[in-house]
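Hi team,

As requested, here is the filled-out complex form for the iron/sulfur cluster run. I kept the field names the same as last time so the parser does not choke. Let me know if anything looks off before we queue the next batch.

— J.
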Amino acid sequence: MKFKELLGLVRFLSNSGGIKGFIGVIEHAEQEIMSMSDLVPAGDQAVMRLDTAPPGAGVNVMIGGMPLRQKMSLLPTFLKVTSSVGRCGQYMYDKQSPSRSDADHSVWTAIDQLARENGAVEVGFVRIDEHDIFEGFAIPYRNAIVFTVDMEKEAIDTAPSFDAMVEVLQTYASLGQVALKLTDFLRDQGYGAYPGFPIRGVVDYVRAAEQAGIGAIGYHGMLISPTDGTRQRINLVLTNMEIPEPTPNPHEWILDFCAMCNKCVRECPPEAIFTTAEVNPVNGRKSTIHYDRCVEYYGQNQGCAVCVRVCPFSQAGYDKIMSGFLRRQASRQAA
Ligand code: SF4
Ligand code: SF4
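And here is what came back:
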Protein backbone atom coordinates (compact mmCIF):
# COMPACT_ATOMS: atom_id res chain seq x y z
CA MET A 1 0.00 0.00 0.00
CA LYS A 2 1.38 3.40 -0.99
CA PHE A 3 1.88 6.21 1.51
CA LYS A 4 -1.05 8.25 0.14
CA GLU A 5 -3.41 5.29 0.40
CA LEU A 6 -2.25 4.68 3.96
CA LEU A 7 -2.72 8.35 4.79
CA GLY A 8 -6.27 8.22 3.41
CA LEU A 9 -6.98 5.24 5.61
CA VAL A 10 -5.60 6.87 8.74
CA ARG A 11 -7.65 9.98 8.08
CA PHE A 12 -10.70 7.85 7.49
CA LEU A 13 -10.29 6.12 10.85
CA SER A 14 -9.39 9.25 12.76
CA ASN A 15 -12.29 11.13 11.20
CA SER A 16 -9.97 14.02 10.45
CA GLY A 17 -10.62 14.18 6.75
CA GLY A 18 -13.17 11.52 5.87
CA ILE A 19 -12.78 10.11 2.43
CA LYS A 20 -10.91 13.16 1.18
CA GLY A 21 -7.45 11.70 1.84
CA PHE A 22 -8.45 8.65 -0.16
CA ILE A 23 -9.84 10.81 -2.96
CA GLY A 24 -6.43 12.53 -3.06
CA VAL A 25 -4.99 9.29 -4.45
CA ILE A 26 -7.45 9.44 -7.34
CA GLU A 27 -6.88 13.15 -7.93
CA HIS A 28 -3.15 12.53 -8.26
CA ALA A 29 -3.68 9.79 -10.83
CA GLU A 30 -6.15 12.00 -12.72
CA GLN A 31 -3.48 14.68 -12.99
CA GLU A 32 -1.17 12.02 -14.38
CA ILE A 33 -3.71 11.27 -17.14
CA MET A 34 -3.69 14.95 -18.08
CA SER A 35 0.08 14.77 -18.59
CA MET A 36 -0.27 12.12 -21.32
CA SER A 37 0.12 13.03 -24.97
CA ASP A 38 -2.55 12.68 -27.71
CA LEU A 39 -5.42 12.91 -25.28
CA VAL A 40 -9.06 13.10 -26.37
CA PRO A 41 -10.44 16.23 -24.67
CA ALA A 42 -13.95 16.71 -23.34
CA GLY A 43 -16.43 18.01 -25.95
CA ASP A 44 -17.88 21.50 -25.83
CA GLN A 45 -21.14 20.17 -24.35
CA ALA A 46 -19.34 18.21 -21.66
CA VAL A 47 -20.54 18.78 -18.12
CA MET A 48 -18.84 19.26 -14.81
CA ARG A 49 -18.43 16.13 -12.73
CA LEU A 50 -20.63 16.22 -9.67
CA ASP A 51 -18.24 14.93 -7.06
CA THR A 52 -19.42 12.30 -4.65
CA ALA A 53 -17.82 13.84 -1.57
CA PRO A 54 -18.31 17.59 -1.43
CA PRO A 55 -17.20 19.03 1.92
CA GLY A 56 -19.94 18.86 4.50
CA ALA A 57 -22.10 16.45 2.53
CA GLY A 58 -22.49 12.95 1.13
CA VAL A 59 -19.79 10.40 1.82
CA ASN A 60 -17.91 12.69 4.23
CA VAL A 61 -20.94 13.06 6.47
CA MET A 62 -21.78 9.37 6.16
CA ILE A 63 -18.33 8.23 7.30
CA GLY A 64 -17.81 11.06 9.77
CA GLY A 65 -21.05 10.22 11.58
CA MET A 66 -20.29 6.53 12.01
CA PRO A 67 -19.54 5.13 15.46
CA LEU A 68 -15.97 3.84 15.84
CA ARG A 69 -17.25 0.25 16.08
CA GLN A 70 -18.81 0.51 12.61
CA LYS A 71 -15.73 2.18 11.23
CA MET A 72 -13.58 -0.67 12.50
CA SER A 73 -15.86 -3.29 10.97
CA LEU A 74 -15.71 -1.39 7.69
CA LEU A 75 -11.91 -1.47 7.73
CA PRO A 76 -11.37 -4.73 5.71
CA THR A 77 -13.75 -3.53 3.01
CA PHE A 78 -12.24 -0.09 2.94
CA LEU A 79 -8.76 -1.64 2.63
CA LYS A 80 -9.94 -3.66 -0.37
CA VAL A 81 -11.42 -0.56 -2.03
CA THR A 82 -8.32 1.51 -1.29
CA SER A 83 -6.05 -1.16 -2.70
CA SER A 84 -8.20 -1.66 -5.80
CA VAL A 85 -8.50 2.07 -6.53
CA GLY A 86 -4.83 2.68 -5.74
CA ARG A 87 -3.73 -0.07 -8.14
CA CYS A 88 -5.94 1.36 -10.90
CA GLY A 89 -4.21 4.69 -10.29
CA GLN A 90 -0.75 3.15 -10.65
CA TYR A 91 -1.51 2.17 -14.24
CA MET A 92 -1.73 5.86 -15.14
CA TYR A 93 1.97 6.20 -14.29
CA ASP A 94 2.88 3.09 -16.29
CA LYS A 95 2.49 4.35 -19.86
CA GLN A 96 2.95 2.02 -22.79
CA SER A 97 3.33 2.27 -26.55
CA PRO A 98 0.80 -0.12 -28.02
CA SER A 99 2.00 -2.38 -30.83
CA ARG A 100 -1.46 -3.06 -32.30
CA SER A 101 -5.08 -1.95 -32.41
CA ASP A 102 -6.69 -4.52 -34.74
CA ALA A 103 -9.19 -6.92 -33.17
CA ASP A 104 -11.87 -9.40 -34.16
CA HIS A 105 -14.57 -11.58 -32.62
CA SER A 106 -12.11 -13.97 -31.02
CA VAL A 107 -10.51 -11.12 -29.04
CA TRP A 108 -13.87 -9.59 -28.08
CA THR A 109 -15.16 -12.98 -26.94
CA ALA A 110 -12.02 -13.58 -24.86
CA ILE A 111 -12.47 -10.18 -23.21
CA ASP A 112 -16.12 -10.85 -22.49
CA GLN A 113 -15.26 -14.22 -20.92
CA LEU A 114 -12.38 -12.85 -18.88
CA ALA A 115 -14.55 -10.05 -17.51
CA ARG A 116 -17.30 -12.49 -16.51
CA GLU A 117 -14.85 -14.98 -14.97
CA ASN A 118 -13.65 -12.18 -12.74
CA GLY A 119 -17.05 -11.05 -11.57
CA ALA A 120 -18.51 -8.82 -14.31
CA VAL A 121 -22.15 -9.41 -15.16
CA GLU A 122 -22.88 -7.23 -18.18
CA VAL A 123 -20.09 -6.46 -20.67
CA GLY A 124 -20.20 -4.16 -23.68
CA PHE A 125 -18.06 -2.08 -26.01
CA VAL A 126 -18.48 1.62 -26.64
CA ARG A 127 -16.86 4.55 -28.39
CA ILE A 128 -16.99 7.25 -25.71
CA ASP A 129 -18.94 10.32 -26.74
CA GLU A 130 -16.62 13.29 -26.21
CA HIS A 131 -19.47 15.09 -24.40
CA ASP A 132 -19.51 12.29 -21.83
CA ILE A 133 -15.95 13.09 -20.79
CA PHE A 134 -16.27 15.40 -17.80
CA GLU A 135 -15.40 19.05 -18.30
CA GLY A 136 -11.73 19.77 -17.68
CA PHE A 137 -10.69 16.14 -18.21
CA ALA A 138 -9.44 14.13 -21.16
CA ILE A 139 -8.95 10.45 -21.94
CA PRO A 140 -6.11 8.54 -23.59
CA TYR A 141 -8.42 6.45 -25.82
CA ARG A 142 -12.04 6.77 -26.93
CA ASN A 143 -12.80 3.07 -27.21
CA ALA A 144 -13.85 1.33 -24.04
CA ILE A 145 -14.93 -1.96 -22.55
CA VAL A 146 -17.69 -1.14 -20.12
CA PHE A 147 -18.95 -3.63 -17.54
CA THR A 148 -21.12 -3.99 -14.47
CA VAL A 149 -20.68 -5.83 -11.17
CA ASP A 150 -23.82 -6.72 -9.26
CA MET A 151 -24.69 -5.88 -5.66
CA GLU A 152 -26.19 -8.68 -3.53
CA LYS A 153 -29.98 -8.48 -3.39
CA GLU A 154 -30.13 -9.53 0.29
CA ALA A 155 -28.00 -6.56 1.32
CA ILE A 156 -29.65 -3.99 -0.97
CA ASP A 157 -33.09 -5.11 0.23
CA THR A 158 -32.16 -3.70 3.65
CA ALA A 159 -31.28 -0.20 2.32
CA PRO A 160 -30.76 2.25 3.84
CA SER A 161 -28.53 0.24 6.16
CA PHE A 162 -24.95 -0.38 7.12
CA ASP A 163 -25.05 -3.75 5.31
CA ALA A 164 -26.22 -2.12 2.09
CA MET A 165 -23.49 0.49 2.35
CA VAL A 166 -20.82 -2.20 2.86
CA GLU A 167 -22.15 -4.05 -0.17
CA VAL A 168 -21.81 -0.92 -2.31
CA LEU A 169 -18.21 -0.47 -1.13
CA GLN A 170 -17.38 -4.12 -1.85
CA THR A 171 -18.71 -3.71 -5.35
CA TYR A 172 -16.31 -0.80 -5.92
CA ALA A 173 -13.41 -3.08 -4.97
CA SER A 174 -14.59 -5.75 -7.43
CA LEU A 175 -15.02 -3.19 -10.21
CA GLY A 176 -11.38 -2.21 -9.82
CA GLN A 177 -10.24 -5.82 -9.88
CA VAL A 178 -12.10 -6.59 -13.12
CA ALA A 179 -10.65 -3.45 -14.73
CA LEU A 180 -7.13 -4.48 -13.74
CA LYS A 181 -7.55 -8.00 -15.18
CA LEU A 182 -8.82 -6.61 -18.47
CA THR A 183 -6.09 -3.98 -18.64
CA ASP A 184 -3.39 -6.61 -18.06
CA PHE A 185 -4.90 -8.84 -20.73
CA LEU A 186 -5.09 -6.03 -23.29
CA ARG A 187 -1.56 -4.85 -22.57
CA ASP A 188 -0.24 -8.43 -22.86
CA GLN A 189 -1.87 -8.62 -26.29
CA GLY A 190 -0.11 -5.43 -27.38
CA TYR A 191 -3.02 -3.00 -27.02
CA GLY A 192 -2.96 0.26 -25.13
CA ALA A 193 -5.21 0.14 -22.08
CA TYR A 194 -5.96 2.09 -18.90
CA PRO A 195 -8.40 1.01 -16.17
CA GLY A 196 -11.18 3.35 -15.14
CA PHE A 197 -11.47 4.28 -11.47
CA PRO A 198 -14.32 2.42 -9.79
CA ILE A 199 -15.05 5.60 -7.80
CA ARG A 200 -15.42 8.96 -9.57
CA GLY A 201 -13.87 8.51 -13.04
CA VAL A 202 -13.37 11.05 -15.79
CA VAL A 203 -16.19 9.71 -17.97
CA ASP A 204 -19.92 9.46 -17.29
CA TYR A 205 -20.05 5.68 -16.80
CA VAL A 206 -23.84 5.45 -16.75
CA ARG A 207 -24.13 7.10 -20.14
CA ALA A 208 -21.24 5.01 -21.48
CA ALA A 209 -23.01 1.83 -20.36
CA GLU A 210 -26.25 2.95 -21.99
CA GLN A 211 -24.38 3.80 -25.20
CA ALA A 212 -22.81 0.33 -25.09
CA GLY A 213 -26.34 -1.07 -25.14
CA ILE A 214 -26.11 -2.98 -21.87
CA GLY A 215 -29.08 -1.20 -20.32
CA ALA A 216 -31.00 2.07 -20.16
CA ILE A 217 -31.01 4.95 -17.67
CA GLY A 218 -34.10 5.05 -15.45
CA TYR A 219 -35.70 8.03 -13.74
CA HIS A 220 -33.42 7.43 -10.74
CA GLY A 221 -30.45 8.26 -12.97
CA MET A 222 -28.91 4.80 -12.81
CA LEU A 223 -28.46 2.05 -15.33
CA ILE A 224 -31.16 -0.61 -15.51
CA SER A 225 -29.81 -3.81 -17.03
CA PRO A 226 -31.46 -7.14 -17.88
CA THR A 227 -29.53 -9.16 -15.32
CA ASP A 228 -29.56 -7.08 -12.16
CA GLY A 229 -31.99 -4.26 -12.79
CA THR A 230 -30.56 -1.39 -10.77
CA ARG A 231 -28.46 -3.51 -8.38
CA GLN A 232 -25.11 -2.88 -10.03
CA ARG A 233 -22.20 -0.49 -10.39
CA ILE A 234 -20.20 0.31 -13.50
CA ASN A 235 -16.58 0.65 -14.53
CA LEU A 236 -14.68 0.60 -17.81
CA VAL A 237 -11.29 0.16 -19.44
CA LEU A 238 -10.14 2.66 -22.04
CA THR A 239 -8.26 1.11 -24.96
CA ASN A 240 -6.97 1.71 -28.47
CA MET A 241 -8.34 -1.73 -29.47
CA GLU A 242 -10.88 -1.75 -32.30
CA ILE A 243 -14.36 -2.52 -30.99
CA PRO A 244 -17.43 -4.10 -32.62
CA GLU A 245 -19.80 -1.95 -34.68
CA PRO A 246 -22.55 -0.49 -32.45
CA THR A 247 -26.04 -1.99 -32.63
CA PRO A 248 -29.36 -0.39 -31.59
CA ASN A 249 -29.97 -0.40 -27.83
CA PRO A 250 -32.76 -2.94 -27.14
CA HIS A 251 -33.56 -1.46 -23.71
CA GLU A 252 -34.97 1.93 -24.68
CA TRP A 253 -38.53 0.80 -23.82
CA ILE A 254 -37.51 1.19 -20.17
CA LEU A 255 -38.12 4.95 -20.28
CA ASP A 256 -41.74 4.31 -21.31
CA PHE A 257 -41.99 1.93 -18.38
CA CYS A 258 -40.57 4.58 -16.02
CA ALA A 259 -43.26 7.03 -17.18
CA MET A 260 -45.87 4.54 -15.99
CA CYS A 261 -44.04 3.31 -12.87
CA ASN A 262 -42.73 6.37 -10.95
CA LYS A 263 -42.05 4.20 -7.90
CA CYS A 264 -38.65 5.72 -7.12
CA VAL A 265 -40.15 9.19 -7.57
CA ARG A 266 -42.77 8.42 -4.91
CA GLU A 267 -40.45 6.62 -2.50
CA CYS A 268 -37.31 8.76 -2.58
CA PRO A 269 -37.33 10.16 0.99
CA PRO A 270 -36.05 13.69 0.16
CA GLU A 271 -38.08 13.87 -3.10
CA ALA A 272 -34.92 14.06 -5.18
CA ILE A 273 -36.26 12.24 -8.26
CA PHE A 274 -38.42 13.95 -10.90
CA THR A 275 -40.53 12.62 -13.73
CA THR A 276 -39.41 15.40 -16.04
CA ALA A 277 -35.73 16.12 -16.52
CA GLU A 278 -34.69 19.52 -15.23
CA VAL A 279 -31.51 21.46 -15.89
CA ASN A 280 -29.00 21.00 -13.10
CA PRO A 281 -27.86 24.52 -12.15
CA VAL A 282 -24.34 23.29 -11.33
CA ASN A 283 -23.43 21.46 -14.52
CA GLY A 284 -26.17 22.52 -16.95
CA ARG A 285 -27.15 18.96 -17.90
CA LYS A 286 -30.77 17.86 -17.86
CA SER A 287 -31.44 15.22 -15.26
CA THR A 288 -34.32 13.67 -13.37
CA ILE A 289 -32.25 13.76 -10.17
CA HIS A 290 -31.88 16.67 -7.78
CA TYR A 291 -28.25 15.99 -6.91
CA ASP A 292 -27.93 18.17 -3.80
CA ARG A 293 -31.06 16.78 -2.17
CA CYS A 294 -29.90 13.23 -2.82
CA VAL A 295 -26.35 13.79 -1.55
CA GLU A 296 -27.49 15.48 1.62
CA TYR A 297 -29.93 12.68 2.40
CA TYR A 298 -27.68 9.75 1.57
CA GLY A 299 -24.88 11.25 3.64
CA GLN A 300 -27.13 11.17 6.69
CA ASN A 301 -28.66 7.79 5.91
CA GLN A 302 -25.91 5.26 5.25
CA GLY A 303 -25.80 5.79 1.52
CA CYS A 304 -29.61 5.54 1.18
CA ALA A 305 -30.05 3.39 -2.01
CA VAL A 306 -33.83 3.32 -1.47
CA CYS A 307 -34.29 3.95 -5.21
CA VAL A 308 -32.10 0.93 -6.00
CA ARG A 309 -34.15 -1.23 -3.66
CA VAL A 310 -37.62 -0.20 -4.76
CA CYS A 311 -37.05 -0.19 -8.51
CA PRO A 312 -39.13 -3.09 -9.87
CA PHE A 313 -36.20 -4.15 -12.04
CA SER A 314 -34.21 -4.87 -8.88
CA GLN A 315 -37.01 -7.11 -7.63
CA ALA A 316 -39.12 -8.76 -10.30
CA GLY A 317 -36.65 -9.32 -13.10
CA TYR A 318 -36.31 -7.76 -16.51
CA ASP A 319 -38.07 -10.37 -18.68
CA LYS A 320 -41.14 -10.54 -16.46
CA ILE A 321 -41.51 -6.77 -16.42
CA MET A 322 -40.96 -6.45 -20.16
CA SER A 323 -43.49 -9.11 -21.10
CA GLY A 324 -46.13 -7.62 -18.75
CA PHE A 325 -45.45 -4.12 -20.05
CA LEU A 326 -45.60 -5.13 -23.70
CA ARG A 327 -48.84 -7.04 -23.06
CA ARG A 328 -50.40 -3.96 -21.46
CA GLN A 329 -49.21 -1.75 -24.31
CA ALA A 330 -50.69 -4.13 -26.86
CA SER A 331 -54.06 -4.33 -25.10
CA ARG A 332 -54.19 -0.52 -24.81
CA GLN A 333 -53.55 -0.16 -28.50
CA ALA A 334 -56.18 -2.78 -29.30
CA ALA A 335 -58.82 -1.05 -27.10
S1 SF4 B 1 -30.24 7.47 -3.18
FE1 SF4 B 1 -31.99 7.94 -1.84
S2 SF4 B 1 -32.04 10.16 -1.78
FE2 SF4 B 1 -30.79 9.62 -3.55
S3 SF4 B 1 -32.22 9.56 -5.28
FE3 SF4 B 1 -32.08 7.46 -4.45
S4 SF4 B 1 -33.80 7.33 -3.02
FE4 SF4 B 1 -33.44 9.51 -3.39
S1 SF4 C 1 -38.52 2.72 -9.93
FE1 SF4 C 1 -39.77 2.80 -11.75
S2 SF4 C 1 -39.59 4.91 -12.46
FE2 SF4 C 1 -37.90 4.57 -11.05
S3 SF4 C 1 -36.21 3.92 -12.36
FE3 SF4 C 1 -37.22 2.06 -11.63
S4 SF4 C 1 -38.66 1.59 -13.27
FE4 SF4 C 1 -38.06 3.71 -13.57
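Two things worth flagging: Residues 13-18 have pLDDT under 50 and may be disordered. The pocket of iron/sulfur cluster (ligand 1) is lined by residues 220, 268-270, 272-273, 289, 294, 297-298, 304-307 (CB under 6 Å).

Thanks,
J.
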